[in-house]
Amino acid sequence: MTQDLIRQREQRIGWLLLTPALILLLFVFAYPIGRAFFLSLFTENLGTQLQPIFSGLSNYHRLIEDGRFWESLWNTSVFTGVSIFCELVLGMVFALILNQSFRGRGLVRTSALLPWALPTAVMGLAWAWIFNDQYGVVNDILSRFPFWETNITWLGDPTRAMLALIVADVWKTTPFIAILLLAGLQSIPEDLYEAHAIDGATPWQSFCQVTLPLLTPQIVIALLFRFAQSFGIFDLVQVMTGGGPAGATETVSIYIYATVRRYLDFGYGAALVVVTFVLLILAVVLAGFLLSKARINVSGGR
Amino acid sequence: MATLTLKELRKQFTPEVVPVKNITLTVEDGEFLTLLGPSGCGKSTLLRLIAGLEQPTAGTVWVGEQNLNAVNPGDRNMAMVFQSYALYPHMTVADNISTSLKLRQVPPAEITQRVRTVADKLDISHLLGRKPRSLSGGQRQRVALARALVRKPDVFLLDEPLSNLDALLREQVRGELKQLFESQNRPVVYVTHDQIEAMTLSSKVAVLLDGLVQQLDPPSRIYTHPANKFVAGFVGSPQMNLLTLDCQGKVAKLGHCEIPLPPLAQVPKLIDLGIRPEALSVKGSEVSDQELVIGGKVFLSENFGRETLVSLRVEGSQDVIRALIPPDQTWNPEYTKLVVPFSSLHWFDAETGDRL
Ligand SMILES: Nc1ncnc2c1ncn2[C@@H]1O[C@H](COP(=O)(O)OP(=O)(O)O)[C@@H](O)[C@H]1O
Ligand SMILES: [Mg+2]
């Protein structure tokens, strides 16, 4: 009886302590999403003199037919998928290197973080110059090799512009993943590797059978963080290509931004936001479901 | 079938840190060698040199006729039990045990059969599906042992495998280990800082200090004939009484006592005398001329239940002697006489510490 009472009281106090955070969450997340959904049921653009007129699900009908939206979604997915994959592979390589002891490791670790610390807009501008077709460093370097085309228009060609964006993004966020994975690597006791070596494993086998499984929580966290960030990428694209050429690098955020701020189509912009949000949530839920099937706990347990 | 041989092994980490200086040893099939020494004396380093986890600065490791210096740890066919057990946390017990077999591409049917046999032997069959996280310390220790046994290796290496168990369990597992490894008939190298483990388990004990073997002998001889002052003080509990005495002519002076010296080529100025507390007893009615009598005042007694440890300040000196006596024995609190047979005295060179 007393046990139950104590537990009840603890639960009450628990809820009490949670309330402020819940209220904050409500205002910061739930309200804007709800408001966006509400807005998306109205037509409110230059055609209506910016007056909201209830139009039901018509914005959503329009969205399904809107090729530009689906293209931007595809662009975002390509950008996200390729850049995260490269970042993960490179980040793992860096983490493994930084996990070795060598002279000046502290310095290397710190300087490896620098790209991550730079403001995206600044480094985006720098990368835009690096890929500039006339004055860019990339073309300069390539022109020194024989048999290479010179003056490649990097940002003016659909595929190459996407490539340039991915390179810049990988450059910026690989350190983040490397540091995250490094923290995970350092939590793996050395004697596991020694035991595995005595068991007869090669270093590659140890990597696959000891490092990767024990690093899964960190990998998953890195993936989730980067997925969320990368899917909403705006600043880098805005600065480097502005979504061009001809919409080839237009991401969802850029499209939404243009819809709302340039075409002043608020109702439709809200519908875009809602659909993107739902798709993102679905992706995360799917990932979470798959991971829980693989019996991996993101918080590092089990 | 296999003999483990270490020849003039040396490991130097930095010019100051040389945990293994020059060690030569052989361990035959079925021999149980214990490396005994205080913490930090290089026991683990020596074991890791044998396993191939460290490369020797000089010297060689052999199994049979094969020089292993250039052989990877995984190809040495040695099994090691780590002090931390080093179980793979993400694998079940069964996977932990079978990893080495899988890596060696043993057929699955044989793996299943061998894992089951060894799990039965160690009584962990019901744990095979669990992860190490959910096991108790004793169970983890068994899994670590099973992982070593399942391989049927040429050599077993164990690094303080009992040090993470509580006292009661340690005693029980110690007995089991002894039976287990007697049936394996392989060279076993066992590292411990616990002299009781060393005494009970081993067929041979190597006492280590400063990267050198101080004495390599069967446990009983280590106890009865310690090779030097360090071994004498390290082995045996309570610790041996070690006294530095002045020599005068053919006797050493302990308070008012005059103790005849052993036959020596040259009488030194100082000499070290060692007397085990358990060799001393409170003087009975008569004393034979084969016994040394030491008189003094008992200032401390500690009852262990099984016996009593009395500390006596020797008459006419500041030296303290401790004696283990039966718990029901009484003594005169003002003046007590302890006796010890002359044959139980240990003499050591005061400078080198070597046994005389
Ligand atoms: N990798 C290493 N680098 C430098 N010094 C080491 C290394 N491994 C062990 N040592 C040192 O060697 C000495 C012996 O260590 P160890 O063999 O672990 O002792 P123990 O007898 O307690 O097992 C210690 O002083 C330790 O600090
Ligand atoms: Mg050790």
Report on this structure.
The complex is a heterodimer of chains A (302) and B (356). By secondary structure, chain A is mostly helical. Chain A is 73% helix and 1% strand. Chain A has helices at 2-39, 58-65, 67-99, 105-112, 114-117, 120-130, 137-143, 158-186, 190-198, 203-231, 235-240, 252-262, 266-293, and strands at 42-43, 53-54. The radius of gyration of chain A is 24 Å and the shape is flat. Residues 297-302 of chain A have low confidence and may be disordered. Chain B is an alpha+beta fold. In chain B, 24% of the residues lie in helices and 32% in strands. Chain B is built from eight helices and 20 strands. Chain B has a six-stranded mixed beta sheet with strand order 6-7-8-3-9-10, sandwiched between helices. A five-stranded antiparallel beta sheet of chain B has the order 13-12-11-14-20. In chain B, a hairpin with a 4-residue loop joins strand 16 and strand 17 (308-314). The A-B interface holds A 189, 191-192, 194-202, 205, 209-210, 213-214, 302 and B 51-53, 72-76, 78-80, 82, 84, 86, 88-90, 99-100, 103-104, 131, 133, 147. Adenosine-5'-diphosphate (ADP) binds next to helix 1 of chain B.
Major sheet: arrangement of strands of chain B: 6-7-8-3-9-10
| Number of E-type strands of chain B | 20
Contiguous low-pLDDT stretches of chain A (5 residues minimum) are: 297-302
> What ions, cofactors and ligands are bound?
adenosine-5'-diphosphate, magnesium ion
Q: What name does CATH use for the topology of one domain in chain A?
A: MetI-like fold
Radius of gyration of chain B: 25 Å
Fourth CATH level, the homologous superfamily of one domain in chain A: MetI-like
User: What class would the helix/strand composition of chain A place it in?
Assistant: mainly alpha
The Rg value of chain A, from CA coordinates, equals 24 Å
CATH superfamily grouping of the largest domain in chain B: P-loop containing nucleotide triphosphate hydrolases
Helix proportion of chain A: over 70%
Q: Strand share of the residues of chain A?
A: under 5%
At CATH level 2, the architecture of one domain in chain A is Orthogonal Bundle
Pfam families (chain A): BPD_transp_1
Protein name (chain A): Sugar ABC transporter permease
Family (chain A): Belongs to the binding-protein-dependent transport system permease family.
InterPro entries (chain A): MetI-like, MetI-like_sf
